[in-house]
Predict the structure.
Amino acid sequence: MTKNSFISLKDGFKSVQKKSHYIASALFPIILTSKNDLNLVFFNYWTNKNRIKINNLKLSTRIYDESGSMICHEEHFISKFHNQISIKKILKKNKIQFKNIKGLVNVELISLEKLNFPFPAITGIYKSGKMYSAVHSAGRLKNNSEQQNIFYTEETNWSCKFDKNITPFFHYFVGNVLPKRNYIIVNLFNKNNKLKKSKKIFINNFTPFSSKIFLIKDIFNLSKFENNDFISVDVEHNSIFPRMIVGNFYSKLNFYEVTHSFPRVKSKDYCPINEKNEFQSKIVGYRNKDLNLDLKIFPTTCEGNFKGETFIKKFNDNKIKSLNNKINFSEENLKKMIIIPFTDNEEVKSIKFKGKMIPSRLNTSFIYKVKNSRNKFSLDIADGARSVIFPKKITHWGHGYLAEGFDTAVMIVNDNYEKFYQKKFKGTLSVYSENNFKKKIKLEIKPGTLLTLNLQKIRDLKKLSKKKLNFLSWHLKLSEPGCECFWVSYRKKDGSIFGDHSF
């Protein structure tokens, strides 16, 4: 057994360029009650971006209860653009009675043409009454053509909330092969990465496709939790890629606020020195005036030593400007949680890095909240620094929601690895929803700026707000690569919020 067999980030991107898969899969936890549902929402990028004929694609869902027993297997028609599938509707269609079901759904995209990536770009949108939360595909089954090596990772890196009626959770699952090790290890750390508590949880009773949502308050009963404590879960890689759906559970609302884990990085992997660029990596955060934002860098990266420079765009500024302040990221301060807040007038904050020891994977949570909301709801987008290793993209896509009082902001930032630059981008944003709805929007993103499209303010999109559970897909095609995107759907009256980075 090897402890860790992750390849470098550079080699990881190289492997994606080799089309070698015919199946892309994803595992999502399901929580079904009279008020709870899971909607699988996706844009058909296989046809629109990768030019795979739609007749060569097939999507299936296999629904399992917690014990691993399959409840239902359904095959689905894939539309050319926007798609959404309700798990509850699948069961009702197949006349399967249920009151309360927990378990998982395995989503499989099967193609007659080779795929670039074994993950499908599918977003799971969790519903609890009028509350929503979203996360893209994380864990999955490995394909037969992939190496089934056994090794272990600490899955971590999500913002944890500890309150009387709120507790962190994680969803643990088993694939088609049982783990060799009969336990997982759950750890509680403080913000300085000091281990406070650890507990083994035995999984002898798990069978193939078993799963369980674990609540941290039940694991560390009567423990004293502090602000910015965080969790890791030591799990086995075998026939699965065990990236987990994690987050915080609101017990009074029976609401799961979801994101996904990242592994603790133990192997040394650094950004290459690139003479073409002034900087080798950057973290860029951005928001509109309705939202607050904090960036949280967890102390779970490999050791590093590098410098950062901060660039700011205030809401009334024309473009990003350097503050001419240098930040030293030493091995010592990377061992502690780093929180970078936005002041009230900051729209964009870009921290650009240079040095010989910049971790290629500098995982960061982008934590959005609705401004002035008394509720504790937040959106935790699991993302991170963008190294020069990252391939630049000409297309981006994501989702959103306009019904039930929700607004949706699609935010497109034009920032690169230089101090000063003059390149602007033009493109088209196409918005799709059910019943063949389509709206095209021409746009331009000036250098060093953020373009925010508040979709509810665009003519013809207001009709989408009249039908509940009518999610949308958007697809951005640029004239050339160079921008990044987030989307956030939020409701000002109660602070409900969900979203993600673009695919």
